[in-house]
Amino acid sequence: METLTKAAPATGAIPNDTFPINGTDHIEFYVGNAKQSALYYQAAFGFEWVAYMGPETGVRDRVSYVLQQNKIRLVLTSALTPDHEIARHVALHGDGVKVLALWVDDVEKAYHTALQRGAESAFAPKTQRDEHGEVVMAAIKTYGETIHTLVERSRYAGPFLPGYAARKSVYPAKPVGLQYVDHCVGNVELGGMNKWVKFYQDVMGFKLLITFDDKDISTEYSALMSKVVSNGNGYIKFPINEPAKGLKKSQIEEYLDFYRSAGVQHIAVATNDIIATVSQLRANGVDFLHVPESYYDDVPERVGAIEENLDDLKKLNILIDRDEDGYLLQLFTKPVQDRPTVFYEIIQRRGAKSFGKGNFKALFEAIEREQALRGTL
Ligand code: FE2
């Protein structure tokens, strides 16, 4: 199934898909200071500023910055008043992902199908227009306060959505080779994983791709369980994690404590050249999790032949794993805000369609070292 590793092209339709999705449309964060976050994503991650909405465009209560790198579109939104819903969200959760927006061809149909199958509405279909055309949007709720906005944009040619004005980076943003969203991971409460897996199966016709139990993902101290669901064409992959019992506090519990609810844990973004991408990200000041040098001792026998120079991977602290289809290279940032909540994964797939199970132990030990430093292990 080669489709699993591809970004979302315009024609992702497969026969008998009862909930066709073309790909990830955008990911919206509610943040405390969108202006400064926007500069962080430009300077550190190489995104370009492409659109803006706020007082200068006639919107009085909020600002949104839209940043883009190849097929990845991030929206950073802040409230301008203290009693705003967005301000409340940020006060409760800290900076975090509010919207995982999905690009569909027919919002009316997708929305009503979802509701008939048990989804809860976040908002009903509405059509917005400006001089560039029209966009239809609706939204359904998922775990925590996160929502899936459904976006139909075939009759729209503007920079993002109606109401947004085109902008250009003033900062000399230099793309680092990030290409598309590979997967988005949710952390949910104990007992919530199966509920949300069933939600994606029932409502959107997703298939269960992989299950990891606490024997796959445990260290001396903490454990978690994870199931990965994927949509019909494979372009959308949502792993769902829940904490499992261990000797000490699971990293998932730490997330839930700080985020104060279920929510998005990490966003994996794909590159075609992880060595170049990570070199640039490191030079830009992005902070990555550290695995000890001993991690690399058994890489040749565990992974076999790879195209990259192992010393380069070691120097950049990039993790390697193999499955039956090939191998993958991956690396995880530290949280990108003060609360230990959302972080990014940088991934390059060389055939492998899996999620780096062979790296889980090293990765979770690295997270635990960070937890210990925060006093939350
Ligand atoms: Fe991941």
Question: Can you walk me through this structure?
Answer:
The chain has helices spanning 34-43, 85-93, 107-116, 192-204, 251-259, 274-283, 299-303, 310-316, 360-374, and strands spanning 23-30, 48-53, 62-69, 72-79, 96-103, 121-130, 133-141, 147-152, 165-166, 178-187, 207-212, 223-230, 237-244, 263-271, 319-323, 326-332, 343-350. With 377 residues, the chain is an alpha+beta fold. It has a nine-stranded mixed beta sheet with strand order 6-7-8-5-1-4-3-2-9. Strands 11-12-13-10-14-17-16-15 form an eight-stranded mixed beta sheet. A hairpin with a 5-residue loop joins strand 7 (133-141) and strand 8. Residues 1-10 have low confidence and may be disordered. The structure holds fe (ii) ion. Fe (ii) ion (FE2) binds next to strand 10 and strand 14.
CATH topology of the largest domain: 2,3-Dihydroxybiphenyl 1,2-Dioxygenase, domain 1
Tell me the CATH superfamily of the largest domain.
2,3-Dihydroxybiphenyl 1,2-Dioxygenase, domain 1
Sequence stretches where pLDDT stays below 50 over 5 or more residues:
1-10
- The end-to-end span amounts to 39 Å
Please tell me the total number of domains: 2
Using only C-alpha atoms, the radius of gyration works out to 20 Å
Strand order of the largest sheet: 6-7-8-5-1-4-3-2-9
The overall pLDDT average reads 93
Please provide the ordered H/E string of secondary-structure elements.
EHEEEHEHEEEEEHEEEHEHHHEEEH
Briefly, what CATH class of the largest domain? Alpha Beta
Q: Which ions and ligands are bound to the chains?
A: fe (ii) ion
Q: Care to count the β-strands?
A: 17
Beta-strand residue fraction: 25-35%
- The total of helices stands at 9
Biggest sheet character:
9 strands, mixed
Shape: globular
- Second rung of CATH, namely the architecture of the largest domain: Roll
| Structural category | alpha+beta
The portion of residues assigned to helices is 10-25%
